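Researcher: Can you fold this with iron/sulfur cluster in place?
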Amino acid sequence: MQDNSSIGIYVHVPFCRGKCAYCGFYSVASPAWRGIYIRAISREIRERTAYLGGMEAATLYLGGGTPSALSPGELGAIIALLERQRPFARDAERTIEVNPEDISEENLDAWRSLGFNRLSVGVQSFSDNRLREINRRHTARQAIDGILLAAARGFSNISADLITGLPGQSDDEARRDLQQLTALPVSHASVYLLSIDPGTLFEVKARRGDLSLPDDDELTRRFTTAREALARAGFDHYEISNFARPGSRSRHNASYWRQRPYIGFGPSAHSYDGTSRQWNIAHVKRYAEALEENLPYFERELLSPADRYNEYVMTALRTSDGVSLHTLRGEHAPFFARALPAWERLLSTGILLREGDRLRATEEAWLISDAFLPDLFHEVAPQPPPPTAPE
Ligand code: SF4
């Protein structure tokens, strides 16, 4: 069921000190553009008061890029404008993504005083060789010390990101990464199976045949190793890539999966108001120039009821909560009715399980969700081509 009582806020900070070999997110290395970015995003926040106007923010997430590459002064300027724009819930979850090389006593204290109560640390691997190969700019020691220091300085809600299936990584190394992770004071872990995204250095290498990638069996083994190790350490596997200790699920990400409205600021950031989605220009200078000249700085897509059904099914069936029958029979009734034979078939084969009002996919099935989800989707009719102007 869509919850429209509060929203999430996302801020995209596109600056990184280098490009990691696997990363397909929009980011730039040029610090010269920071001033342009701060002016432009300040303008966007000031101007977008009507979008989801007046609604309280339940979560704030600064992602990137590398938000910790901004100074406390730059971060403070953005936060002050956001807090002026709309009320924040007293218990709002406020996350900042940080890279290990930026963690210091001074920065931790500054992030806390800016209101951040959750850190998401980009660890990726605890092997220095692997970190060098993927062009990270920190060591395993820095990640370990950074997380310990963050906990000592009062952060009790720390998430760490790991990638499993990196080229050259053995099963043993992947297991050691998980052992190290679970020995640290983290309340949440995101473990991603490596994917080769377009436009990345890994994609170029893979095309040239210069990358030795794990096959599907190896990836399945890694996924199983990760969930077993994290389950033993008391983490609940609540979404295909996400694990949390009790009470520490990411509220911000969960709001995307529940189709709660959100507003995104900054280049490449997305927003969703319940019926349409929009996304900002993914280029700092072009985004800034468009805002400066009062030109459109985003594209917008109206979501049809069928789109909303498909998105609900696709995101919710990759979570342990699954979908609600009440919601399917209510707001998505015509599409659910048409796909009912496929739902029944997946239930009878054990890919889907029913628990009260919920239907959920088994954890094993999450890995093959691309294969069965399309059976449940409503095929969206192709749009007619736009009319062409007479010659
Ligand atoms: S993974 Fe993070 S630090 Fe690396 S290039 Fe991507 S956004 Fe930047």
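Model: Folded with iron/sulfur cluster in place. Residues 382-391 have pLDDT under 50 and may be disordered.
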